[in-house]
Amino acid sequence: KARRYYEQALLEDKDNAFVWYQLGRIDFLEGDFDAALYKFDKQIELFGDAVPNVYYMIGLTNGYKARETHATSDWQKAAAGFQQYLTFIPDSPWARTDLSWVYFAQGDYEIMIPILEVGLAQNPDHPWLLNMYGLALRGLGHAVEATTYFERAKVAANDLDVSDWSRAYPGNDPQLWADGLAEFQSVIDYNVNLSADSTQ
């Protein structure tokens, strides 16, 4: 239904700066990454930087595509998308988390550190940033320091409720919000235990 209405909106108002972006988001959610990227490129071609979130979605889409293709070029495009988004919204903890995820997936732990440190200076209790920082430290072999950040992430994550999760992932199925939060908390618990065990 969403696709049908956006396509109708495109026919009726070609100057609407959000339609190509939203159609691309639908393609992304359906796993059609190439179609999504085509629409995001069309968005930029027609409207430039009117919707900066398009760069975030380019980063996310290329990142998910890279998980399937394992292509370095797709990871690079993912990083470039998030970096471009950060030029518009440098305080975004989400873009810093996801940009770090791109480098984590490639084992580039050193590159993650400054990206996350800027984010933590602005959002010191952000559980996603704290968890990613712990992963970077663990990847670099700093298990004791990593455990500290995982424990901080655990405290912050345990303070979240389903409404917090819904604001973080508004595009996800509402029926899965509680499960998503529980899984996130479980992953952090796992990281705490794994990191703690490696220090003994």
How is this fold's topology laid out?
Elements (H helix, E strand, L loop, with lengths): L1 H11 L6 H11 L3 H15 L5 H17 L2 H17 L4 H13 L3 H14 L4 H13 L3 H16 L3 H7 L8 H22 L2
Helix pairs in contact: 1-2, 2-3, 2-4, 3-4, 4-5, 4-6, 5-6, 6-7, 6-8, 7-8, 8-9, 9-11, 10-11
Can you give a write-up of this model?
The protein is mainly α. Helices cover 78% and strands 0% of the residues. It has helices at 2-12, 19-29, 33-47, 53-69, 72-88, 93-105, 109-122, 127-139, 143-158, 162-168, 177-198. α2 (19-29) runs antiparallel to α3, α4 runs antiparallel to α5 (72-88) and α6 packs parallel to α8 (127-139). The chain starts with a helix and ends with a helix.
User: What amount of the residues lies in strands?
Assistant: under 5%
Mean pLDDT: 95
Helix content: over 70%
Biggest beta sheet summary: none
Low-confidence runs of at least 5 consecutive residues: none
Rg from alpha-carbon coordinates:
18 Å
Structural class: mainly alpha
Number of β-strand runs: 0
Shape verdict: globular
Order of helices and strands: HHHHHHHHHHH
What's the total helix number?
Answer: 11
Q: How far apart are the first and last residues' alpha carbons, in Å?
A: 55 Å
